[in-house]
Specification:
- This protein has 23 helices and nine strands.
- The strands form two sheets. It has a six-stranded mixed beta sheet with strand order 5-6-7-3-8-9, with helices on both faces.
- Helix 3 packs antiparallel against helix 12 and helix 7 packs parallel to helix 8.
- 35% of the residues are buried.
- It binds adenosine-5'-triphosphate and magnesium ion.
- The site of magnesium ion (MG) has 3 residues, from helix 14.
Length: 626
């Protein structure tokens, strides 16, 4: 994790404290037309559910009115008789009327709850599926873009965009919008209905709860913004320290700094815990304040009703007030919480949306090649660079400058040169991991990326530090193959070629021994040799090695050189090496300095042409004679 990107992240988080409507719109744009239509159906269903809810509340109010008439043994007023008549309940006794009305109200409210639960379940599944497919799409786009795109952001940022960022888009933004819509509609329908039937209840509710909610929002808002950015800051700082501690354990162990790191992490985590606790309490503040408002409001409303109305009118209004407030107050609470969720969600969603946008603008080389309808014969393991220049996106000077190079099939070319001269960049250009700023690179006369997709396994690469995964030896050699597809004889053969047969024979589990998390059970030299075995496994036609023998002792290096010698003529080899024993065996040496080829030819020719290289050889020889 780069410290720079973390501070950028925190900065971003701080700036993104306002709800961004554009972000919300862009989240919905990610959905297909069919999915939008489905969401519209859900919205209509929410509307109908809110209407059902209102009907339930009215029925309860009506039962209240009827009950008061019943208790007073008075005949109901004209309106009540009219409604009873409408429902066909007029001829029944008062008890039966109440029982039937109660039953209808119960069924209506129960049906509403059940349908709501069904819709919620389907929406959750829908959002989870969307999250998975959006994640997949970004992974695909990111991996098939180019290394610069991947490296533009730290590993941490890419991981964040693919995990938390995607769930913020789906569950956080889309899901919360749907919930907000449902609650707004509920409040709106209740309010408009009440305004028509019981205006005093409608106005009292708006006045009491609307005002309380608005005041609460105003009071809490700033604190929420502050806590959200502080929370993110402490979390990232703590994680960064943890990452440093684990990543540079040996250095910190040797310099006695482990304790200091543990203390710093503990301070960060404690601060974060306090922020988290404060944030968790905020929704509860709203809940308690609204509960108090409800109790006080109910007392006030009841008092006023009895002062100004007769018992029937008062009870009817009070029942409707209680029933509708019982629906509206939780909806207000949900809206408040959703607003809080929204803030965090839009902020992290916008980061992922930005990555999606950047990746959408890319046009991968593979697609271009396919559309050209190239003919795919057997690979010719040649490499050609024509006038290639390359500048890193965040760099000013070109790292490779108008470089031309032709490597014949079966040739072994050693690339040498001082540190920082552009050797690794050259390899990345040959592999198509980087695209030239100018000029053309080709493998087998086609774009490298196209060559890799046409002839998978024909080009392999060994970095200085091979990534060892958390599996068995055979899984690491036959990287990416299903266990059932692994050719064990070939694995054994490759291990023997790089001198790792011992590793297998010493262990009781043989090829199936675990190599431990990230190869922690292997030495640096063993890891490098496993990397070479991995590159040999698919029987490549072009083998590219970047400092692949730097950690090896002379004997192990000899083994690798013998192995490369045995491939001579069959396999094209491009190797970067500081160790002269590897260079001296090659067919051609290319000396690179500041992105240009300074000399090319046999080992001795280059020695004569480049004094620096000659000096290096002499120093190295003197070293060996000691
Ligand atoms: N991602 C990057 N962004 C910007 N500049 C970079 C990047 N990677 C490398 N460079 C710069 O490009 C130049 C060449 O780097 P490169 O890794 O190709 O050198 P090298 O010859 O492989 O060196 P070494 O022998 O030390 O591995 C260096 O000056 C380096 O700072
Ligand atoms: Mg390098």
């Amino acid at each position: 994790m780069r410290t720079g990107s973390i501070s950028k992240f925190v900065e971003h988080y701080k700036l993104q404290v306002k709800i961004e409507w554009k972000t919300i719109r862009n989240c919905f744009i990610l959905l297909s037309r069919r999915e939008i239509v489905r969401l519209r159906y859900v919205a209509v269903a929410q509307l109908l559910l809110a209407a059902l809810d209102f009907l339930g509340v009215l029925l309860i109010g009506f039962i209240g009115t009827l009950s008061v008439y019943g208790i007073q043994s008075r005949p109901p007023n004209k309106q009540t008789i009219f409604i009873l008549d409408l429902l066909g309940l007029e001829p029944l006794s008062f008890q039966n009327q109440v029982a039937i009305l109660g039953l209808i109200a119960g069924v209506v409210l129960l049906a509403k709850t059940l349908v709501s639960a069904m819709i919620s379940r389907r929406t959750i599944f829908f959002l989870a599926n969307r999250a998975a497919s959006i994640s997949n799409r970004i992974i695909e786009k990111l991996i098939f873009s180019n290394m610069e795109q991947i490296k533009r952001r730290s590993r941490f940022e890419n991981m964040f965009a693919l995990t938390s960022g995607v769930s913020s888009i789906t569950v956080g933004v889309i899901g919360t919008t749907m919930n907000l819509f449902a609650d707004f509609i509920l409040i709106l329908i209740m309010f408009s209905g009440l305004l028509l039937i019981e205006p005093t209840v409608a106005i009292s509710i708006v006045f009491m709860f609307g005002l309380t909610a608005w005041l609460l929002y105003k009071l809490i808002n700033k604190r929420v913004i502050y806590l959200a950015s502080e929370g993110a800051r402490f979390e990232i700082l703590g994680d960064e320290l943890l990452y440093e501690l684990l990543g540079s354990y040996r250095e910190l162990f040797a310099s006695g700094l482990r304790n200091i790191y543990v203390q710093r992490i503990s301070v960060m985590k404690r601060k974060q815990a306090s922020v988290t606790a404060n944030s968790s309490f905020i929704p509860l503040i709203s809940k308690y304040v609204l509960e108090i408002a409800f109790v006080l409001g109910a007392i006030l409303f009841t008092g006023i009703q009895f002062i100004y109305k007769d018992a029937v009118g008062a009870i009817s209004s009070i029942t409707i007030f209680m029933a509708s407030a019982g629906r509206i107050v939780p909806a207000i609470l949900r809206i408040q919480n959703a607003a809080l969720t929204f803030r965090g969600a839009t902020s992290s969603a916008s980061r992922t949306l930005k990555i999606i946008e950047e990746l959408n603008n890319l046009d991968p080389a593979i697609d271009r090649g396919k559309s050209q309808g190239l003919n795919q014969g057997p690979i010719i393991a040649s490499v050609n660079l024509k006038n290639v220049s390359f500048t890193y996106a965040d760099g000013e000077d070109s790292v490779i400058k108008k470089l031309s190079l032709d490597i014949e099939p079966g040739e072994w070319v050693a690339v040498v040169g001082p540190s920082g001269s552009g050797k690794t960049t050259l390899i990345d250009l040959i592999l198509g991991i980087l695209k030239p700023t100018q000029g053309q690179v080709s493998i087998s006369n086609v774009d490298p990326e196209l060559a890799l997709s046409f002839w998978p396994g024909s080009v392999t690469y060994v970095p200085q530090d091979s990534f060892i995964n958390n599996g068995t030896i055979e899984q690491n050699v036959a990287l990416g193959k299903e266990i059932t597809d692994i050719d064990r004889d070939r694995v054994t053969e490759c291990l023997s070629l790089v001198g790792l047969s011992d590793l297998v024979s010493k262990s009781s589990k043989g090829l199936k021994s675990e190599v431990g998390e990230l190869g922690s059970k292997l030495s640096g030299g063993q890891r490098q040799r496993l990397g070479v075995a991995r590159a040999l496994y698919p029987k490549p036609k072009l083998l590219i090695l970047d400092e692949a023998t730097s950690s090896l002792d002379n004997l192990s290096e000899r083994l690798i050189i013998d192995c490369l010698n045995s491939l001579r003529g069959e396999v094209t080899v491009v190797s970067i090496a500081h160790r002269l024993s590897t260079v001296v065996n090659s067919d051609r040496v290319i000396y690179i300095e500041q992105g240009r080829i300074l000399a090319s030819g046999s080992f001795n020719e280059v020695r004569h042409k480049v004094p620096n290289f000659d000096l290096q050889v002499k120093l190295s020889n003197a070293e060996e004679k000691k």
